[in-house]
Amino acid sequence: MRQNIGPPRSSGACLGRGLGGCCRMWGVSTSQAVTVRYWASARAAAGVSADELPVSGATTLAAVLDSVRTLHPGRLHDVLQVCSFLVGDRPVGTTEPADVLVEPGQTVELLPPFAGG
Fold first, then answer.
1. Which residues, listed in sequence order, are joined to residue 18 by a DSSP beta bridge?
2. What percent of the chain has pLDDT over 70?
3. How confident is the model at residue 116 (pLDDT cuts 50, 70, 90)?
């Protein structure tokens, strides 16, 4: 499947850091973007609560996660290895990220394990 996430890191362009920043810069509406929301230790590792990644069509969760790793190198890579994921309101569970379709306008939630009551 074609990976429809842009712009590339090497372009020197905005990479979506902060909710809506990149999409506004590139004139992309949020319906042409995938919102990634970070929770708990994922938020701490990313340093932001959310990113909007411009897309030109459907993509995969694997491509979204690759973009997130590029945007936030370092500790987030390790946190992602223990995260659960929601695409929209649908838990991904044990499905391979490469097999999970993410449509423009959807939200991907990154949920690390956490305790609470």
1. 51
2. 71
3. low
Per-residue DSSP letters for 72-110? S-SHHHHHHTT-EEEETTEE-TTS-GGG-EE-TT-EEEE
pTM (2 decimals)? 0.75
Rounded distance between C-alpha atoms, residue 73 and residue 78, angstroms: 10
- Cα radius of gyration rounded to whole Å, the chain: 13
Return the CATH fold of 9-111.
Ubiquitin-like (UB roll) (3.10.20)
Domain boundaries, the chain: 9-111
For residue 18, what pLDDT is reported? Answer: 39
Q: Is 48 helix (H, G, I), strand (E, B) or coil?
A: coil
- Tokens describing residue 67: 């973009």
